[in-house]
Amino acid sequence: MGSRTEICLLVIAIQFLVATGQTNPQDFAALEALKNVWTNIPPNWNGSDPCGSSWIGIQCTNSRVTSLTLPSMGLIGQLTGDIAQLSELETLDLSYNNGLTGPLTPSIGSLTKLTYLILLGCGFSGPIPDTIGSLQQLRFLYLNSNRFTGNIPPSIGNLSNLYWLDLANNSLSGTIPVSSGTTHGLNLLVNTKHFHFGNNQLSGPIPPSLFSSSMTLIHVLFENNLLNGSIPSTLALVQTLEVVRLDRNSFTGSVPLQFSNLTNVNVLYLSNNQLTGPFPNLSRMNYLFYVDLSNNSFDASIFPSWLSNSQSLTTIVMENTNLSGPVPAVLFSLPQLQTLTLSNNQLNGTLDVGSSYTNQLELVDLQNNLISNFPEPAGITVDFILVGNPVCKGTGGTKTYCGAKLSNPYPSYSTPPNNCIPATCSSNQVSSPNCRCEYPYTGTLHFRAPSFSDIGNSTIYTSIQSSLMSSFQSNQLPVDSVSLSNPTTDTDHYFMITLEVFPSGQDHFNQTGISGIAHVLSNQTFDLPSTYGPLFFIGDPYSYFAEGSSGTNKSSNSGVIIGAAAGGSVLLVLVLLAGFYAFRLKRRAEKADKVNNPFAAWDLNTTSGGVPLLKGARCFSYDELKNYTNNFAEANSIGSGGYGKVYRGTLPDGQLLAIKRAQQGSMQGGMEFKTEIELLSRVHHKNVVGLVGFCFDHKEQMLVYEYIANGSLRESLSEYYMTQQVTEKSDVYSFGVVLLELVTARQPIEKGKYIVREVRERMKNDKVLYGLDEILDPAILAPTPKGLEKFVDLAMSCVEEKGDQRPAMGEVVKEIENVLQIAGLNPNADSASTSATLEVDDSKGYIHPYNDDSLFVYSGAFPLSSS
Would the CA dihedral through 815, 818, 819, 820 be positive or negative? Predict the structure, then answer.
């Protein structure tokens, strides 16, 4: 009993002595200051080492806090100037904490390394500080759905790297700032893709100088403001536009003739203004899906002929636009048309649907017109609304099409169960799609401008669910399933769906899980087709955390400080006692370690460094691996190389392993082996075989991988070279495709799009990281690794169309080594792990994936070029 007490004292002493931790003191002081003004902070925000203790929501690089993500935590308080001390911060996401109120501190401008500033769905108020223009590295700025007032800071125009600007759903006022002389303005944001300013109180005209041909905008949203004057014709200079919303303002004059030049626009809202002049001619908009010109005062006109030729239109909304004459029958044969809304006009005559109407059509709203006759086609399932027309007078009033307009044209929907019977759950629990009673994380998806109106189509929901699940899984989040329900629209024509996210492995989420899920939803890393348009998510508070919440505030922190001081005194006494016993226990502890500590065999001298810092990898003993491989039996040998042999092993639970055992002549030094396993333990990618663990015991060096039976990258390149079916240059092309798969986490051909063509087109149009943000794997963008640009350049050189323009494989290997050195991942390029040669197992006729002596073993499939 005495010896156990002595060991405990020693452990306590050691913990106290290393309490200086891994966190920079300045960063720790900043987080402590934020703890003093916030309540409901995560329960593990204690101790003096946020980085080493893995505080929830905190990520660090080299002792500095680089990410603070606490969305949907129920935080209450203010964001004070103490945030400025986190000078290495790259990501700040506090979304969906509506208890965070007060002004946004001007000190935010000191965080000059920020790339993500995500504060949507909070309670911040007052003006947006002008110092925000100092965030030169900022790529994503989400301040929407708060209570900000005052003008848009002109300094935002100084953010030359900005990709996404969202200030919607606030109370911002004043005019739109543009540059003049030495002042900045939004017209300088030529690399920005998203202008989201809807639902504010912006006034005055849109300055013509806001837009230019050098801009790359795809979304311009100014809906529901107080803007007036004419619509600037310069908007048509932005040829990249896909969505334009100028509705619910007070614009006057004619629609610019140049609007027809916006040939890439999918969605156009000009409704609820005071536009006059001739009915706009949009005949050149060949990709226009959704158009709404309602409630304007255009000159009285017959039905525009160009509409009958618009083959891509899904939705036509032209209420109260002074249309007259008959409705052309050809309109109903448009192949994609789903909804036609033409109420409150002067349309007359016979409504002739014709015999070739599209099977996509669902709703035709012609109420309050002058239609006198409607020969309803037999068997048609379209909802016609003709109330308020002469055809509905007298006996015609009994017809079904003379009923009132549908109050909610959207059919009900709820994600069905996955071939199971829904569970009967207790209060507050919900039956998941997999029929388990759980506490889901909930919120609402708001689609600002979808290019379709047929939301009764279940494929829309399965597409959204699939995209969300794919993103959650790629971020290794504990999500079992998602459910969508209650589709509806609001007065701004936002399409809204309730989202429920269900936990995996237990019936509730912990705070780490909610933080990760909410962060994915707040920064929109999930990939939806462009037809869904711009969207945002607002999360609900989550009240079912496994850990509870600390509820820390100023008074409770005072108690913690007092307790810590008292505890520190006790620990000091314990340290002295432990020192007294330390020498006596040295040999006894070493002996115990050899039995109980899996790292006891690690050589802690200057040549091998300290114990490895691992991310999920396990330390196996020699005896364990000997047992799993039946004493390294030859029958379990599955390959060999210059490094040594590879054996198949089986864990007691049945999991298969591939164990790479170094032969004596090829073993690395302790430091090199330590560096290698630390690196491999941090690599998690669907195309790279994962490291399960390692062994550094009995003078052995072994790496333990997942067992993959499909073959390695080198094997696949060699299932063609050895058969003389293709050339080395086509192997290089295939390798380039593999590199693009790695950085995009996409298949070579996905949704009809070829990855090489997608990357090449984006590199032509944008030189800031080649405009690849939307297709790169989000996991490599926060933060962006050094050498990524050279990696992409290498991949694209490998997939040049002409074989003689591609590099040799030896040149490719050298360039990869250069990229690794830039990224700090290849400190010893000459180590044995990178110098071994490929050997063929003639008896089996193929090369096993674990014969490859490189660090990374690729497990995917890829296409081959014919040249």
Answer: positive
Prior bond of 783 cis (ω within 30°): yes
Please, are residues 47 and 85 in contact by the beta-carbon 8 Å criterion?
Answer: no
* Whether 196 contacts 172, CB under 8 Å: no
Q: Which pLDDT score is estimated for 786?
A: 78
**pLDDT > 70: percent of the chain:** 78
Nearest in space to 343 (alpha carbons), one of 394, 283, 301, 384: 384
Domains of the chain: 2-18+553-596 (no CATH), 430-539 (3.30.70), 618-706 (3.30.200.20), 713-851 (1.10.510.10)
**What's 225-268 look like in SS3?**
CEEEECCCHHHHHCCCCCEEECCCCEEEECCCHHHHHCCCCCEE
Contacts of 304-310 with C-beta under 8 Å, sequence gap 24+, read 304/279, 306/281, 306/282, 307/331, 308/334, 309/283, 310/282, 310/283, 310/285, 310/334
Phi, psi of 794 (to 5 degrees): -60, -45
Query: Does the pLDDT at position 307 exceed 50?
Result: yes
pLDDT at residue 725 tops 60: no
Find how far residue 151's CA is from the centre of its chain. Answer: 30
Tokens of 331: 């309109």
Q: How far is C-alpha 587 from the chain's CA centre?
A: 52
Query: Is 738 in contact with 704 (CB distance < 8 Å)?
Result: no
Residues sharing a CB contact under 8 Å with residue 215, sequence separation 6 or more, in sequence order: 189, 190, 192, 237, 238, 240
CA distance 610 to 567: 29
Nearest in space to 84 (alpha carbons), one of 63, 64, 105: 105
For the residues 444-462, what does the mean pLDDT come to? Answer: 87
Q: Is pLDDT above 70 for 102?
A: yes
Which residues are CB-neighbours of 613 under 8 A, at least 6 positions away? Answer: 678
Residue 232 CB neighbours (<10 A): 17
Does position 733 have pLDDT exceeding 50, yes or no?
A: yes
From residue 816, give the alpha-carbon distance in Å to each of 488, 674, 737, 768, 793: 51, 22, 15, 22, 11
Q: Which residues contact 38 (CB under 8 A, 6 or more apart)?
A: 75, 76, 77, 552, 553
Distance CA 45, CA 47 (A): 7
Two structure tokens written together for 164: 């996404």
Interacting residues of 831 by C-beta distance below 8 A, sequence separation 6+: 668, 672, 676
Please give, one letter per residue, the 3-state secondary structure of 322-386: CEEECCCHHHHHCCCCCEEECCCCEEEEECCCCCCCCCCCCEEECCCCEEEECCCCCCCCCEEEC
Contact between 535 and 448 under an 8 Å Cβ cutoff? The reply is yes
Copy the structure tokens of residue 260: 């027809």
| Threshold 0.90, pTM exceeds | no
Give me the DSSP letters along 24-85.
-HHHHHHHHHHHHH-BS--TT--SS-TTTTT-TTEEEETTEEEEEE-TTS--EE---GGGGG
The 8-class DSSP code of residue 124 comes to E
Distance CA 209, CA 201 (A): 21
Dihedral pair phi/psi, residue 469, rounded to 5°: -65, -40
Place of tokens 């490291």: 691
Contact 49, 59 (CB under 8 A): no
**Higher-confidence position of 801 and 217:** 217
- Residues 746, 747, 752, 758: is their CA dihedral positive or negative? positive
Q: What share of the chain is helix, strand, coil (3-state, %, to 5)?
A: 30, 20, 50
Is 96 in contact with 70 (CB distance < 8 Å)?
A: no
Whether pLDDT at 857 is above 60: no
722 pLDDT more than 70: no
Pick the residue with more confidence: 823 or 521? 521
How far is residue 100 from each of residues 67, 119, 320, measured CA to CA in Å? 18, 10, 43
Residue whose pair of structure tokens reads 């063609």 in the numeric block = 720
Least confident of 262-266, 441-445, 689-693, 778-782: 778-782
